[in-house]
Write a structure and sequence with these properties.
two-stranded parallel sheet, globular, mainly alpha, 2 strands
Length: 138
């Protein structure tokens, strides 16, 4: 699975965050991983809102007939969040990217769809998620 580490490292330079993202990516179904890795518009970035600078991301424009560009922007603080919560967030965001920020059906809310898909991959939303406030800070 070295190719997954290399893939993540193309976008994320923060080692602890790289490791967490790669660890979750390695557990996802092969068809999901292939879908993301084969899409030239799929990209990731990391940012630290505590650094005081403005963060800019390059988001590839969708091509004709594409379902849209796909990007995940990770907060650096995710590297230090409780592991169960971090893994859930990572899986949830990969689910959004895989679903192209849509529901699995026309009527399904995209957030519910991402939660359900992450849970199907073994990453249930932790019960304690509502009390985690790490994401509100740096």
């Amino acid at each position: 699975m070295e190719y997954l580490s290399s893939f993540v490292a193309r976008f994320i330079q923060h080692s602890p965050l790289q490791e967490r993202i790669t660890a979750v990516l390695q557990t996802l179904p092969v068809e999901v991983v292939q879908d993301l890795l084969r899409d030239p518009r799929f990209t990731m970035a990391a940012y630290d809102p505590a650094d005081g600078s403005h963060t800019h991301f390059h988001i590839p424009l969708p091509g004709r007939g594409d379902a849209g560009s796909r990007m995940i922007a990770w907060k650096i603080s995710l590297a230090h969040a409780p592991l169960d919560f971090a893994n859930y967030v990572i899986a949830h965001e990969f689910a959004h990217a895989y679903l192209r920020n849509r529901g699995r059906t026309h009527d399904e809310d995209p957030e519910d769809a991402a939660d359900a898909l992450a849970a199907a991959w073994g990453y249930d939303k932790p019960r304690s998620a509502m009390r985690y406030t790490w994401w509100r800070r740096s």
